[in-house]
Amino acid sequence: MKLLVTGGAGYIGSVVAHQLVAAGHQVEIIDDLSTGYATNLPSAATFHQLSVHRVAEVLTPDAGFDGVLHFAASIEVAESVTNPEKYWHNNIEGSLALLRAIRAARVPRLIFSSTGSMYTGDGHTAFDETAEVRPRNPYAATKATVDQLIAGECGASSTLGATSLRYFNAAGAVLTSDGIHLGERHDPESHLIPILLQAASGQRPEFTLYGTDYPTRDGTCIRDYIHVTDLATAHLLALDATRPGRHDIYNLGNGEGFTNREVLDTVRAVTGSDFPVRTADRRRGDPAVCIASSDKARRELAWKPEHTNLATIVSDAWQFHSRQHR
Question: Using CA atoms, how far apart are residues 56 and 102, in angstroms rounded to an integer?
Fold first, then answer.
């Protein structure tokens, strides 16, 4: 298939783009490189350095695209709270520009990078796709809004089939067959494992552990970490499963959570670094447990995560981090 990947120079988008190329697809990528990296791009893909707002310049009616995988978005939760307009512009208006181009070009498939952070619950039960959607920040609100836009587009179209994949915590790194190392590198960094790796490598003076009195097995929060390779594989499976007029939603996670202290201990074991740790009070709004039920994806997409061991996830991320900071 001829496929367009928006945001294909970013962390997850680039891993998916490499998998698509390896599977024999013809891949074109749009990315403005504001947060992505040109070094992440597959050499066999055609690259357009453009904002997603200008996607119609590439996704034309005569371009012959068979599908779009949409990753282009701003993703920092804290920034979305202080600068929500940026998130309305990039995530919602950018997605609207894409949907207009898809409609004009009669593209039959769309896979959307969504988020499990839009759910709310009792803080203990794993989230399935029927869980209540109640976004707690502008970032999650934009993803929920785009899911609704896509559902409406599929309902109005006899040609478009779409799938929203709601991730939990993507982690780990990949060394591609052509020697490109793909992993997390955000500025500023807000994700637990890379923050811990920064502490382990001396880039941070210490690590702060927020909340040690949660009703969990060791008093710290439990979160679901999914290896980026497994996440990418789900996109290829979803691409084959889309059907005209349907909008399907799947949660993607390990289904098995790890506590913050377990992640901390694993990072120390993998890196051999006994860095300083400071404990602090709970952060407002942090639930005790946030894990995914991925039964629907396993059942309907035949998807099964293969890299579920926490030490493997951390080790892969550490190899990438060490290479970046030699």
Answer: 8
Structure tokens at 168: 């939990």
Average pLDDT score, the chain:
94
Give the H/E segment covering residue 70.
strand 67-70
Q: Is the bond into 188 cis (omega within 30 degrees of 0)?
A: yes
Q: Which residues are catalytic?
A: 139
Amino acid at 138: P
Instruction: Let me know: does 320 contact 231? Beta carbons within 8 Å.
Output: no
What was the pLDDT predicted at 151? Answer: 97
- Give per-residue pLDDT as tens, 149-159: 999 999 998 89
pLDDT of residue 326: 64
Q: Is 156 exposed, middle or buried (0-12, 13-18, 19+ CB in 10 A)?
A: exposed
Q: How far is CA 270 from CA 13, 184, 224, 229, 277, in A?
A: 27, 17, 19, 20, 16
- Read out DSSP for 4-62? EEETTTSHHHHHHHHHHHHTT-EEEEE---SSS-GGGS-TTSEEE---GGGGGGTS-TT
